[in-house]
Amino acid sequence: MHILAGEALHDIAMKTKDLTPEQIASVPCPTCGAAIGEDCELNSGALRFEPHRDRRLSAADAMEAKSGKNKRH
What is the pTM of this model? Predict the structure, then answer.
């Protein structure tokens, strides 16, 4: 089980490392509710230095889906 967790973490890192800030901001944040184009926030309302992990994953999924659609056409 430990190896699978390590592999999953590696996949997540590989999936999100090449995203630009614009690509990440192109999806809403499921964690803090930041809208498309807005920065993620802390619970206090202050801006985060980085987007939430779930937002990066959502953006990576969106980019994958978009590139998959482009390959079919």
Answer: 0.74
